[in-house]
Amino acid sequence: MALKVSGANPKKFHKSQLKFYIFLIPFAIFMMLPIVFIFNHAFKPLDELYAFPPRFFVYRPTFDNFVNLFQLANSSGIPLSRYVFNSLLVTFSIVFFAVVISTLAGYVLSKKNFKGKFVLFEINTAALMFVPIAVIIPRFLTVSVLGIEDTYFAHILPLLAMPVVLFLLKQFIDQIPDSLIEAAVIDGASDFKIYLKIILPLIKPAIATAAILAFQLAWNDLETSILFTTSENMRTLAFFMNTLVANTNVVVGQGMAAVASLIMFVPNLILFIILQSMVMNTMSHSGLK
Amino acid sequence: MPKVNNLGEAAVEIKKDPPKLQSILQKAKRVNKTPYLFLLPYMLLFLTFIIIPILMAIYLSFTNFNTIERPDFIGFLNYINLLTQDEIFMQYVLPNTVLFALIVGPGGYILAFLLAWCLAQLTKGPRTILALIFYSPSMTSGVAMAVVWTIIFSGNQAGYANSILMRLGFITEPLIFLQDTRFILLIMIVVALWSSMGVGFLAMLAGVLNVDETLYEAGAIDGIKNRFQELIYITIPSMKPQMLFGAVMAIVNTFATGMIGVQLTGSNPTPNYAGQLIVNHIEDYGFIRFEMGYAAALSVVLLLIIFVFARISKKLFSES
């Protein structure tokens, strides 16, 4: 490697990288400010929320806003724990089942030969463009025809098939050498055994990515709560937090809304920090031809 | 190596090892059904909640449907009304959508690529931290973060944007940003761009990092002089698949964040339709006026717009 031409993925810091920092840091500050702001705002005591001129940073952090939020939720008849329970149940079911059905489908689409395989994958690729809110009305009708409104199924089933997740998993499974599977076939392994013992252990990074994408989608989803449920105690945390956000005119409400955003945001952030190297590994196979 | 089906593979095995003939043939036959079995759960849900709703939208777009009576067939009337009668669509919704989509779509995409490319020029530690910062706004899909922006742009003098502008002397009276028709679309675009560094951005970052280094060396020998030439002649051509994936994600993101106007202003329709995008128009007709047939026609138009955008990206980045 005598010729050093490209600076991509450098090992050490060099003065020539400074210009990139100068370009990137203003953007980073712009992207980060609202998030830093939420963290500060959530811990502000009442007088600092009222402060004029408004202050960006918190001076005397308190948990008042958290306490207020819990009290408000309890006084509205449905305890916050109910929304939290709903959200956790729905989110974990979606993550688990989405990973199971997508890995199963990804395995056969990548490694098996059967009629209609390419057509199916092409349709799924086209569905990458699918925007659920574009067909919000037929989805609503489908749910009511199936008779699953106002049940946990209405939260879970509509979100399980995620074209992006299947796409990323299939692309990742393509990297596994065929010889590995052929060897297992000769040893008499069944398809399910190959899936369980060979495919799943080898695609951990892609599974992590699938899980994180499914988590983000499910945890933040409002569509199912707004449209597919009618009773208040079937709704999720995202929905409850969103109704709070709608009442941000009152200054006290601002503090609680900031807490709400924080509660919605932090789980996503922690998951991504833990899994980020696996996500980057998967993304390098994300190419679309 | 040529592709072979299961029976073909079995035949090869049989030549190598004749005594296994029976068991392998049996297996090959049984195996042929399992692909469909494995696909079944995904495909069933995919059909029910993605394909059928799209087909239903197309069917309903040719009907008059108020959710109570049966839909009755009216041909192209919804589409004709859309083009000739719907003044709000032509005057506000369509121009807003086009402007929003052009800036947030290609604009956000180019920004995502530039940021990804610059990040790739840094060492691993700072790169990871900066990538996390860029990606984090998209984690909450923008909507949950609407609260931050409503506080920042709140309409009294205690609002952060107003306070800063007044202290700097640009304005003397606080502006009611989120109800002011002059600012709504602009603020929506800023928020959408802020939250647009999602999966596509990560894919492009991975793409830049994975370009074969020997290509750069070969390029240097062939007379590539600077980073810009390197970018145009080597980096982009060798990461076309990621570029296309990023483009598709950018398109989807653009239309999926369309609800943000309603989130920020707190009402549908947005004040004076200033932030009304096609997705809000669909919701307005579907769930406020209960004209489901017309709303379905709008959905079909939206799907067509997305499809056309995606076709264009495919033309730009397809290999060969």
Automatic annotation (TrEMBL), chain A:
Keywords: Cell membrane, Membrane, Transmembrane, Transmembrane helix, Transport. The chain crosses the membrane at residues 20-43, 83-107, 119-140, 152-173, 194-219, 251-275. The keyword Metal-binding does not apply. Signal peptide: none annotated. Residues 84-275 form the ABC transmembrane type-1 domain. It is a multi-pass membrane protein. It is found in: Cell membrane. Belongs to the binding-protein-dependent transport system permease family. This is ABC-type glycerol-3-phosphate transport system permease component.
Automatic annotation (TrEMBL), chain B:
This is Multiple sugar transport system permease protein. The keyword Iron does not apply. Residues 94-313 form the ABC transmembrane type-1 domain. The lineage of its organism: Bacteria, Bacillati, Bacillota, Bacilli, Bacillales. PANTHER family: BLR7065 PROTEIN (PTHR43005), SPERMIDINE_PUTRESCINE TRANSPORT SYSTEM PERMEASE PROTEIN (PTHR43005:SF1). It is found in: Cell membrane. It is a multi-pass membrane protein. It comes from Evansella vedderi. Keywords: Cell membrane, Membrane, Sugar transport, Transmembrane, Transmembrane helix, Transport. Its main location: membrane.
